[in-house]
From TrEMBL, chain A:
<dbReference type="InterPro" id="IPR036504">
    <property type="entry name" value="CGI121/TPRKB_sf"/>
</dbReference>
<comment type="function">
    <text>Component of the EKC/KEOPS complex that is required for the formation of a threonylcarbamoyl group on adenosine at position 37 (t(6)A37) in tRNAs that read codons beginning with adenine. The complex is probably involved in the transfer of the threonylcarbamoyl moiety of threonylcarbamoyl-AMP (TC-AMP) to the N6 group of A37. CGI121 acts as an allosteric effector that regulates the t(6)A activity of the complex. The EKC/KEOPS complex also promotes both telomere uncapping and telomere elongation. The complex is required for efficient recruitment of transcriptional coactivators.</text>
</comment>
<dbReference type="GO" id="GO:0005829">
    <property type="term" value="C:cytosol"/>
</dbReference>
<dbReference type="GO" id="GO:0002949">
    <property type="term" value="P:tRNA threonylcarbamoyladenosine modification"/>
</dbReference>
<protein>
    <recommendedName>
        <fullName>EKC/KEOPS complex subunit CGI121</fullName>
    </recommendedName>
</protein>
<dbReference type="GO" id="GO:0005634">
    <property type="term" value="C:nucleus"/>
</dbReference>
<keyword id="KW-0539">Nucleus</keyword>
<keyword id="KW-0819">tRNA processing</keyword>
<dbReference type="InterPro" id="IPR013926">
    <property type="entry name" value="CGI121/TPRKB"/>
</dbReference>
TrEMBL record, chain B:
<dbReference type="GO" id="GO:0005634">
    <property type="term" value="C:nucleus"/>
</dbReference>
<dbReference type="GO" id="GO:0005829">
    <property type="term" value="C:cytosol"/>
</dbReference>
<keyword id="KW-0418">Kinase</keyword>
<dbReference type="GO" id="GO:0070525">
    <property type="term" value="P:tRNA threonylcarbamoyladenosine metabolic process"/>
</dbReference>
<keyword id="KW-0158">Chromosome</keyword>
<dbReference type="InterPro" id="IPR011009">
    <property type="entry name" value="Kinase-like_dom_sf"/>
</dbReference>
<dbReference type="InterPro" id="IPR000719">
    <property type="entry name" value="Prot_kinase_dom"/>
</dbReference>
<dbReference type="GO" id="GO:0008033">
    <property type="term" value="P:tRNA processing"/>
</dbReference>
<keyword id="KW-0819">tRNA processing</keyword>
Length: 214, 285
């Protein structure tokens, strides 16, 4: 049974809904990809490889920008779902964005996003269809689930962050946290890791927001 | 919340238009529920508090409305350039580890920017309150060292900004915020009783917290000593005019700045030239 999380994202019309479902151990990724390639209208989803997603906020931010661009008639790709994949990208290369963030034949960690811009499709409808379509183990769409899936090295490479003088600065921040002038907090390993992830996440949100600016 | 007590200066409140603020919002935010809360209206931008994606993530909305007196094509170009310049500098700073609000989303055609909400208040308002309060049972030297500590954190943060290759352009005490450490790390700290206690103590010292730089509307990328020195000069004048009682402690800002990055000492020497010119100018003009 699919575990669907439904969002009414801030600022979007209240009739709009964003549905998200997360899976591990997916067995039929190539079938799903094929449905997108053949333009099967029963498969109007963004199928994302969850190893390229750092957090729920990361994915929802892409859905938010795609929907705003949709409402302003400035989609750069076919529809709001392909646009969601594209909106994860730090650059304007659509094909690249599909390769990096979209489902591929070897995907086992899958994030499904469905954006409903009218009231016609219900959470139940999405659940029923996905339960039939995706062969995998449903897990809740929460940061903790994504944390075990994310390929941090790949993400840093895609967004070109984490090299010497930048976001590794989460490390730098920690240092100032234990200095006498900063806060008195001493972070243990796990907290430092969460903090680094958070810094990476917001750096990514900035790059996504600025994509396409000239 | 915290910032709602951070009253805007009187001149800003007087400039509020007769129209209900909602009619000035970019279209996307017209049906936002609850409506974005207007905080300040400057000459160029309106600042609201609202949420991003989900109700639990607060954010600041900065809107640069179009100016009816400008030619529409020029207006669209200027709006786009300014909102983009600000977002680019914010994102760059954050990537380089400078304490600034994160960029969440933006629409340069519509002139809006959503960024991370910074809890706490401006250094200006916090200093105002702190300098005018006279707590009992706290000795003067302790208060002095607390103030000194804040000044040094300001210097360090400005140093980090400059090291990242950015000059602010309007470095005043209103464009520096003090973010309580407890909000970001409360959940982490509360698991340990010892740390929890420490946090309680920190909360009671009002000048504790992380210095965060905001308002990059006039910022530019520069590594010139002159530009950096002018930033410091503007800040020095700002402290002098808003907080004369804190002025003598500005040396502490400069001391910490001087140690914050490699080229900082040279900038401090340049600052002396800038001051001199400033004095001459005010004598002539
Ligand atoms: N990210 C934020 N989080 C919380 N409060 C903020 C944030 N950004 C701004 N504020 C509050 O809003 C006030 C005005 O913001 P800001 O300085 O960016 O606008 P402005 O001075 O009108 O802009 P500009 O000078 O570009 O026209 C600040 O003094 C601060 O109190
Ligand atoms: Mg300002």
């Amino acid at each position: 049974m699919a575990l669907i999380e439904t969002f009414h994202l801030s600022h979007l019309p209240s009739s709009y809904a964003v549905h998200a479902a997360l899976y591990r151990d997916v067995q039929n990724a190539s079938f799903l990809r094929q449905q997108l390639l053949s333009g099967n209208t029963e498969f109007e989803y963004a199928f994302l490889d969850a190893t390229s997603i750092i957090s729920t906020m990361h994915a929802l931010a892409a859905a938010f920008r795609a929907t705003n661009d949709f409402m302003n008639n400035r989609l750069r790709s076919r529809n709001v779902h392909s646009e969601t994949v594209f909106c994860l990208s730090p650059n304007n290369n659509i094909a690249d964005s599909f390769r990096r963030f979209g489902v591929n034949d070897t995907t086992t960690n899958l994030l499904v996003i469905k954006i409903c811009t009218g009231g016609e499709i219900t959470t139940d409808g999405v659940r029923t269809h996905l339960s039939r379509a995706v062969d995998g183990a449903a897990v809740p769409f929460i940061d903790e689930s994504l944390r075990s899936m994310t390929d941090l090295a790949k993400i840093k490479k895609i967004y070109k962050i984490g090299t010497s003088n930048n976001v590794g600065s989460a490390g730098k921040r920690n240092k100032s946290d234990i200095s006498p002038t900063g806060s008195q907090m001493v972070l243990n390993g796990n907290q430092a890791e969460l903090k680094e992830r958070k810094e990476l996440e917001v750096a990514i949100l900035g790059l996504m927001a600025l994509r396409g600016a000239t | 919340m915290a910032a709602a007590t951070d009253n805007p200066p009187a001149d800003i409140t007087e400039n509020l238009p007769d129209l209900p603020p909602s009619t000035l919002l970019p279209p996307l935010f017209n049906n936002t529920n609850p409506p974005p809360e207007l905080l300040t209206q400057g000459a160029e931008a309106l600042l609201y508090r609202t949420t991003y994606l989900v109700p639990s993530i607060p954010c600041a909305l900065k809107h640069r409305p179009s100016k009816p007196y400008r030619h529409p094509i020029l207006d669209a170009r200027l709006t786009k350039q300014r909102i983009l310049a600000e977002a680019r500098v914010l994102a760059k700073c954050r990537r380089e580890g400078v304490n600034v609000p994160a960029v969440y989303a933006l629409d340069w055609e519509k002139g809006w920017l959503l960024m991370e909400w910074i809890e706490g208040g401006t250094v200006r308002s916090i200093l105002d309150r702190w300098l005018h309060s006279t707590p009992v049972g706290v000795d003067a030297s302790k208060r002095e060292s607390e103030l000194k500590d804040l000044m040094s954190r300001v210097g360090q943060t400005v140093g980090e900004l400059h090291r990242a290759g950015v000059v602010h352009g309007d470095l005043t005490t209103s464009n520096l915020m003090l973010k309580p450490v407890s909000t970001a790390d409360d959940t982490l700290a509360s698991s340990h009783e010892e740390e929890g206690k420490q946090h309680q103590e920190q909360r009671e010292q009002h000048l504790q917290g992380e210095v965060v730089v905001i308002d990059f509307g006039l910022a530019m990328q520069s590594v010139q000593d002159e530009d950096r020195a002018v930033d410091l000069y503007v800040l020095e004048r700002a402290f002098g005019s808003t907080h004369p009682r804190a002025e003598n402690l500005f040396q502490e800002v400069l001391r910490a700045y001087g140690e914050s990055f490699k080229g900082a000492k040279v900038v401090l020497r340049r600052l002396e030239d800038v001051r001199m010119r400033g004095r001459k100018k005010s004598m002539i003009g």
